[in-house]
Structure formats: C-alpha cells, structure tokens
Amino acid sequence: MSRRPAFTCAACGAVTAKWAGRCDSCGEWNSISEEPAVAGPRATTSSRGRRIVLTDLATTEPPAPRALSGIGELDRVLGGGLVPASALLVGGDPGIGKSTLLLQAAARFSTAHPVIYVSGEEAPAQVRMRAARLGLTDAPLRLAAETSLRDILATLEVERPALAVIDSIQTMWADHVDSAPGSVAQVRAAAHELVTFAKRRGTAVVLVGHVTKEGQIAGPRVVEHMVDTVLYFEGERGHQFRILRAVKNRFGPADEIGVFEMTGAGLAEVANPSALFLSERGAPTAGSAVFAGIEGTRPLLVEIQALVAPTALGTARRTVVGWDGGRLSMILAVLEARLGIGFADRDVYLNVAGGLRITEPAADLAVAAALLSAREDVVLPADTVFFGEISLSGALRPISQAETRLREAEKLGFTTACTPPRARADTGGRIEIHPVADLGAFMDKWFGSIDR
User: Fold this and answer.
1) For 289-446, where are the alpha helices, taking DSSP H only?
2) Average pLDDT over residues 28-44
3) Do 443 and 378 contact (CB within 8 A), yes or no?
C-alpha cells in the first residue's frame, strides 16, 4: 500500500494531511510545503526495551565540564565555555560575520583540542583566504568542503574531534530523505543526525543556520528545540558593532550578549561596550537621551536618538531602528492621552545608536525623554541617564537591577539619573537620583511648561 505525502509547516514543524495557505498550529502564512511521508514506527512493547534508571530531585551531579573557546565574549554568551556533547545553532543575516566568528573561535580552540570545520558553501581555498586575512593560517584546524551528511558523519566517527563546525545546515544533504537540500525534511533530518552524533560521541557540534527576512532561523522550528543553545548574530550592516545574543541556553543564562567590533583583521572583542557605544555621541543635541539598560547580566548604556518633524503627508510616518515599533506607538499614545502632547501631525523617527536592538520595557522613559526633547527642541543634560517602564496610566513602574544600572552610569562619569520611585544605589553619593512617579512629574522636572 502506497503512503500518502505529508505537508509540514516550516515555522513550527506541524504535519498535516493536505496543503493549506495558513498553518492552523502557529498561524504562519505560506509556510506549508510537501514532503514525502515517513513510515510510522512499529508498535513497541515493554519486552523490547530496557529498564531506565530513575533518580529523584535530591540527586546531585557535578556541573557540566567546559572548554574555553579562546574568545571571551563568546564564552560569556555560552555561559562559561563550550560544553562537550552539546549542539549549538548560530543564525544571522548573510554577511553579518557568522563564518568569520566561528572560524576565529575554531582556530583558537584548535590549539588545544582537535577541530574540524566543514563548509557546504565555500571551497577550502576560500576558507584559507579568509584565514590568511585573519592571521589564522598557523592554527591546526582541519577543513573540508562537503554536503553529503553520510560522508561527514563517517569522517567525524573516525576523527572524533572535540568540536565540529557545520556551515551551514541548509546545505547538508541526507541521501535517505527524498527531497532537495534546504527543504524542511532535509534540514530536520540533517540536524537530528548531527545532534545524535554529538550526544553519542561527546563532540560539541556547531550548526550555522540561515535566517528568513523576518530574522528567524530558516527551516522548521523543531531544529531550535533539538539543539542545546541557539545564538543569534545581530547588527546593522552599516555599523561596525555586532551583537551575539543567546536566545536559548540549557547550560547558561539566556538573553546574555557578547559585543564585537568588525575590523579589517576580523571580529574584535569589546570589553566595555557602554564606553564604545557612547564614544561617538558628540556634543549634546535635542532628541538625544542616554538609556541605562541591562542585556543578560551585563549593564549597557546606549544613546536613544529621536527626530520629530512636521509631516508633509496626510498620515504621519513612524520609523524605528533598534526598538519595537508597537512600543513606540504605545508611548506616543500615552503622551497624548495623559499629557495632551500630540504627535499626530508630526513624523517620528527613533534610532538606537550603534546598531544595538533593545527589547526591555525599561527603555520607555529614555524614549519618552528623547521624543519630548526633539519635539520641544530642548537639550537634555549630557551627564544624565534615564530608565523606567511607562504604564498605560502614565505612571512609572519599578524595574529590576536599578543599582547595577546606576553603578555602570556612575563608572562612565554620569552624575544624574532620572528613575522610577524606589530606585536606590550605594554609589557613595556620586550620582544624584531624581525619582519621578509619573510622566507629569517627569515633564515638570525636565521640560517645565510645554505648549500642549
């Protein structure tokens, strides 16, 4: 009896019996494609298996051993280094520097451990050219250009490296799957085989993944569930800064970031990103406010830039770079509803300097300060930082790790901070704190009387 084809959603991995334009599981449009059906597993019975070992919650185990990659910012994001028998997935836009970062990390790691770098997109000569540009030609790193998953696994079984880099998972081809490389079935099968090898042989496997136009790693979402760690390499092509962000980590904290600077000699680590992000700030101007944020466990100061101009069109424009556009609309609505300050007849442009993307709501107050500063052409003090979450009522809500933010601001020479109530820090009185309860008090403190 012939098997019917199956249809799989590339976004969530859900399987349906027929094609549809929209996935019923995750709601994505045009994400369902056909793949050959796989025969289901035979029925299992207890007599065919083995008894598994059960433990309790009080059982203690030693922490997972780690090996340093040689790049401090990468080790920070991983939670302290590479864990043997782990699987990592690294995604990012084309040309952002994924291969450069992994080649640098693999070359440094190879000085103490055997490493194999498999490229499915470039020839070995191209990888060598990049290594020569980065000054890595003396590293004992072994290269291969191959897309056959069977041959790659056979080589890894013989060589038994401590680290294997697969660039990229979308180019791998499993001959037991009847579909083209890059399809949902191929990506899922290749990822499953490589993760299984990592767990069985104790090799750390790094998979490079392409991203979609929405910024998500291409292929079925189930691949992200298979691996232990998912890293995103972010940054604007026009900026020299790159952010490596952990969105999933079974061996360390999620949302931790590492900061790099793209130079002619490759990616350089940024030990003090706050100072670097603020180094090009220049003279204070209207529409500029400094936000004291937290990325993972690291305090980070960054400049929020706003421009407000009369609109020449019937509908005002809202352009945002580095922040959530929906959050900006909410802040504008609160300013108009609670303070009577309207932006309906003005174009609003908001930018996070340096190419960083901010996700935490604590940036609300800095964004509001930049918007009001740009609208009223009022220059905010250059030695002041802002942070606080704005509620729909216009009140400022307390946020976490206020003391860490204030200590970082004090270290970089800031003397004043505008914060929500109850934000305190033991800084020896070197930074003056101005708590504000709501947007009305904030406006009176920093802008005085505004024509509404």
Assistant:
1) 325-339, 364-376, 402-411, 439-446
2) 64
3) no
**Residues contacting 115, CB < 8 A, separation 6+:** 106, 107, 109, 141, 142, 161, 162, 163, 164, 165
Give Cα separations from 92 to 235, 257, 285, 325, 395 (angstroms): 9, 14, 34, 21, 37
Which two tokens mark 432?
Answer: 């003056």
Inter-residue contact 173 to 186 (CB < 8 Å): yes
With vertex at residue 15, the alpha carbon angle to CA 12 and CA 19, rounded to the nearest 5 degrees, is 105
The reply to whether the predicted model has a pTM over 0.85 is: no
Task: For residue 32, give the H/E element and its range.
Answer: strand 32-35
First to last CA, the chain: 75
- Domains of the chain as residue ranges with CATH: 72-271 (3.40.50.300), 275-446 (3.30.230.10)
Name the H helices within 135-241: 149-159, 184-201, 222-226
Q: Each residue of 408-425: pLDDT tens digit?
A: 999 999 999 999 987 765
Structure tokens at 23: 């996935």
Q: What is the pLDDT of residues 343-378, one digit of tens each?
A: 999 999 999 988 888 989 999 999 999 999 999 999
Burial degree of 163 (CB within 10 A; 0-12, 13-18, 19+)? buried
Each as own residue / partner, the long-range contacts of residues 131-135 (CB below 8 Å, 24 or more positions apart, any chain) are 131/103, 131/107, 133/265, 133/266, 134/100, 134/103, 134/104, 134/107, 134/265, 134/266, 135/265, 135/266
Residue 214, C-beta contacts closer than 8 angstroms, at least 6 positions apart: none
Predicted confidence at residue 424, as pLDDT, reads 64
